Amino acid sequence: MTSPVNPPGALPAGFISPRDLKPGLTLVTGPRDAGKTRWCMDLADSARAAGMDLRGLVSPALMEGGEKSGYDLLDLGSGERRRLAWRLGEGRGSLATDHWQMVEDAMEWGNGILRSIHNCEIFILDEIGPLELEKGVGLTAGLEFVDVHRHIPCFVAVRPSLVQKAGRRWDWAEILVLNAEAKP
């Protein structure tokens, strides 16, 4: 795994020309609320504007009263969304993390999408977390996609506490570090 490709937060996705991206994996990381999902969605918007074949999934937060109430899973290819997670204790998800109850049907749907991708010009996955990297469940088809598609630009969001574990799996990855202070 290589060192960070930028100083913290210095590379907004809007300044990247998607057509100039090189094959390989970039782990997009940063603390909670640093803008990892927004960065991935901005890169997706730029790729779409350039007419590129974009595939993958992002997990935008759902807000209620200024607080995160859950997460959706958004298919970047079709634009279809499904509820991915509810706040822990709401009883609407079958897999629990420290703060969220994950909807297993949504993860199965997401894995189906990821398994159906055979090639593309850019791949984005937001995010890979403890379910995938520590428990072997969740969006595991995304891990498998990255394992075998080194020939395309892949961007995977991962929290800082899991960057080293992801780096052991993908020792060819570069790291892009975002920070909360860099948000617009």
Description:
The protein has 184 residues and is α/β, with parallel strands linked by helices. It has a single domain (22-182), classed as 3-Layer(aba) Sandwich (Rossmann fold). Helices cover 27% and strands 29% of the residues. It is built from 5 helices and 10 strands; from the N terminus they run βαββββββαβααβαβ. A hairpin with a 3-residue loop joins strand 6 and strand 7. Helix 2 runs parallel beside helix 4 (140-148). The two termini are 29 Å apart. Residues 1-10 have low confidence and may be disordered.
Topology:
Elements: E1 24-29, H1 36-49, E2 54-58, E3 61-64, E4 67-75, E5 81-87, E6 95-96, E7 100-102, H2 104-116, E8 122-128, H3 130-135, H4 140-148, E9 153-158, H5 163-169, E10 174-177
Helix pairs in contact: 2-4
Q: Which structural class is indicated by helix and strand composition?
A: alpha/beta
CATH fourth-tier homologous superfamily: P-loop containing nucleotide triphosphate hydrolases
Low-pLDDT runs? 1-10
Q: Give the strand content.
A: 25-35%
Total of domains:
1
According to CATH, what is the class?
A: Alpha Beta
- By DSSP, the count of extended strands is 10
Main pleated sheet: 10 strands, mixed
Distance between the termini: 29 Å
Give the helix tally. Answer: 5
Task: Give a nutshell description of this structure.
The protein is of the alpha/beta class. The chain has five helices and ten strands, in the order E-H-E-E-E-E-E-E-H-E-H-H-E-H-E.
What attributes does this structure have?
184 residues, alpha/beta, Rossmann fold, 10 strands, 27% helix, disordered N terminus
